[in-house]
Write a structure and sequence with these properties.
This protein is α/β, with parallel strands linked by helices and 265 residues long. It has one domain: Rossmann fold (3-Layer(aba) Sandwich), CATH 3.40.50. The protein is built from ten helices and eight strands. It has an eight-stranded mixed β-sheet with strand order 1-2-4-3-5-6-7-8, sandwiched between helices. Helix 2 crosses helix 3, helix 4 packs antiparallel against helix 7 and helix 5 runs antiparallel to helix 6. The longest helix is centred in the N-terminal third of the chain and has 14 residues. It is globular, with a radius of gyration of 17 Å.
C-alpha cells in the first residue's frame, strides 16, 4: 500500500481516479479525517466523487497506517504534511475537505499554504474553542490523558453520533478509534484543543463551504456560523438531524451539498 515520505513521517494515502480520461480533468479532492480516524472514514464519499475528481484520502501523522513523528507535533505540522504529500504527487492545487480535526488542518493549510488550496469544505469543525470553554476543554483533555483508548473511543464516538445512528456503524467506528496509538492520539487532541484561527479567518480567500449537523454536540452549529461569518463569501449548509460525523451518519445529504459546491469549481 502507498506510503509517501514527507519530512519526518511516512504518510499513508490512497488515490482513486475514475474520471473519464478524454475530458478535462478537475482538480483533485483531498479528504482529511477527524481525530482518531483514518482514510477509511470517507468510505461513503470515495465512490461518489472519484468519477468526477481524482480523490486522495490520507492518514494524518499519528493516525491509521501513517508512521513516524507521533509526538510533539502541531496543527502546522499536520498541515505541512498534507501539502508535501500533494506536491510529491504532482498536485499543485486541490480542493481540501476536512472533518472536525481535519477541518482545522484544512484551515491551517489555507492560512499557511494558500496557493495549494482551490477550495475548502469545512465539516463539523471550528475556528477555535468558544470563549469560556477552557474548563470543558481541560476536563476533556484530562479524560483523554487518563483513560485507555477503548474507553476514550466509546465515550467520544457515542457522543459524536445522534441516537438515530445505526448501532452497528457506531460500534464499528468505536472499534476503529480504539486501535489508535494512545500517545499520538493525545498529541493530536492537544493540537486540536489548542487550535485557534478565529482572528485569521479573514485571511482565507479560497471558496469555502461550511457544513454542520443540526444536532452536532461536539462542534455545535454556532461554531460553524462563526466560520461562515469570518471567511469571506463562505456558504453555510446545515444538515437536518445530523450529528458530528455527518459524512458517515448522513452520507447522502453530505455528498449532495458538497457536490453542489464543488462541481462548478
Amino acid at each position: 500500500m502507498p506510503h509517501e515520505p514527507v519530512g519526518d513521517v511516512n504518510l499513508y494515502y490512497e488515490l482513486h481516479d475514475f474520471c473519464e480520461p478524454w475530458r478535462t480533468a478537475r482538480r483533485p479532492i483531498v479528504f482529511i479525517h477527524g481525530l482518531g480516524g483514518s482514510h477509511a472514514m470517507w468510505l461513503y464519499q470515495v465512490p461518489v466523487f472519484c468519477a468526477d475528481f481524482p480523490v486522495i484520502t490520507v492518514d494524518l501523522r499519528g493516525h491509521g497506517q501513517s508512521r513516524g513523528g507521533e509526538t510533539d507535533f502541531t496543527m502546522a505540522d499536520m498541515a505541512r504534511d498534507v501539502v508535501r504529500l500533494t506536491r510529491n504527487l504532482g498536485v499543485e492545487r486541490a480542493h481540501i475537505v476536512g472533518l472536525s480535526l481535519g477541518g482545522m488542518v484544512a484551515q491551517q493549510i489555507a492560512l499557511d499554504h494558500p496557493l495549494s488550496v482551490a477550495s475548502l469544505v469545512l465539516a463539523d469543525t471550528l475556528a477555535g474553542a468558544p470563549p469560556g470553554s477552557e474548563g470543558l476543554l481541560a476536563e476533556a483533555l484530562h479524560f483523554i490523558e487518563n483513560n485507555d483508548m477503548a474507553e476514550i473511543a466509546r465515550a467520544r464516538i457515542t457522543n459524536a453520533f445522534t441516537e438515530r445512528v445505526d448501532p452497528v456503524l457506531r460500534d464499528y467506528l468505536i472499534d476503529q478509534v480504539s486501535h489508535n496509538r494512545k500517545e499520538a492520539y493525545v498529541q493530536a487532541a492537544r493540537a486540536a484543543f489548542g487550535f485557534n484561527a478565529r482572528e485569521r479567518l479573514g485571511e482565507i480567500g479560497a471558496p469555502t463551504l461550511v457544513v454542520v449537523g443540526e444536532q452536532d454536540r461536539v462542534t455545535p452549529p454556532v461554531c460553524s456560523e462563526e466560520l461562515a461569518r469570518g471567511i469571506r463569501g463562505a456558504r453555510l449548509a446545515q444538515i437536518p438531524r445530523g450529528g458530528h460525523i455527518t459524512n458517515v451518519e448522513l452520507p447522502a445529504e453530505f455528498n449532495r451539498v458538497t457536490r453542489e459546491f464543488l462541481l462548478p469549481l
